[in-house]
Amino acid sequence: MIRVLLVDDQSLLRLGFRLILEAEGDIEVVGEAADGATGVAMTAATSPDVVLMDVRMPGMDGIEATGAIVAAGGSARVLILTTFDVDQYVHDGLRAGASGFLLKDVPAGDLVAAIRTVAAGESVLAPTATRRLIEALVPLLPSPGASDRATALMEVLTGREREVFGLLAAGRSNREIAEALHLSEGTVKIHVGRVLAKLELRDRVQAVVLGYESGVVAPGS
């Protein structure tokens, strides 16, 4: 059973998400919170697998709450909710440790699928969609010390791992990486796992964010 906590200041949205999720046999809504601080406290109290987190809320917003949940070191994974056309905080949410994002008008089936994906330990977006998101946001939110960080990254990875990371950060799938490097998908999967572990990244979404922040991948490349 996948345990989900809903954190959103709009009660009607929380009700809608609850009705959608509770119709699934493998998902249980363990609680609701109307602000970030309550969401952090309820995460500690209920131990959900996935926290569905709004960004704009009174008091502690979803970005700060995400950072607090991730910093606590539990197993809960955060799925950010946003209205992309007006909300440019998604990059900060991913940097804080979120495992992906959804638009607030996401179809019910996509919401359920995304929660299952995140609960399974993966990012919620296809690599190409992630790349488009980061390319739109990173130029607006530059990260200081990018060149130093890139140098440090290269020191912890082997030559092959640097190649894999470059393609991973560019939003390539395992199949595409395998084709580019003339490797089997099984070998690529092993390399990806090692890269994520060495760089202490939770998932592919964070790899894309780090790739752009560090300058390993340039917007538009």
From TrEMBL:
<keyword id="KW-0805">Transcription regulation</keyword>
<protein>
    <submittedName>
        <fullName>Response regulator transcription factor</fullName>
    </submittedName>
</protein>
<dbReference type="InterPro" id="IPR011006">
    <property type="entry name" value="CheY-like_superfamily"/>
</dbReference>
<dbReference type="InterPro" id="IPR016032">
    <property type="entry name" value="Sig_transdc_resp-reg_C-effctor"/>
</dbReference>
<feature type="modified residue" description="4-aspartylphosphate">
    <location>
        <position position="54"/>
    </location>
</feature>
<dbReference type="InterPro" id="IPR058245">
    <property type="entry name" value="NreC/VraR/RcsB-like_REC"/>
</dbReference>
<keyword id="KW-0804">Transcription</keyword>
<feature type="domain" description="HTH luxR-type">
    <location>
        <begin position="150"/>
        <end position="215"/>
    </location>
</feature>
<keyword id="KW-0238">DNA-binding</keyword>
<dbReference type="InterPro" id="IPR000792">
    <property type="entry name" value="Tscrpt_reg_LuxR_C"/>
</dbReference>
<keyword id="KW-0597">Phosphoprotein</keyword>
<dbReference type="InterPro" id="IPR001789">
    <property type="entry name" value="Sig_transdc_resp-reg_receiver"/>
</dbReference>
<dbReference type="InterPro" id="IPR039420">
    <property type="entry name" value="WalR-like"/>
</dbReference>
<dbReference type="Pfam" id="PF00196">
    <property type="entry name" value="GerE"/>
</dbReference>
<dbReference type="Pfam" id="PF00072">
    <property type="entry name" value="Response_reg"/>
</dbReference>
<feature type="domain" description="Response regulatory">
    <location>
        <begin position="3"/>
        <end position="119"/>
    </location>
</feature>
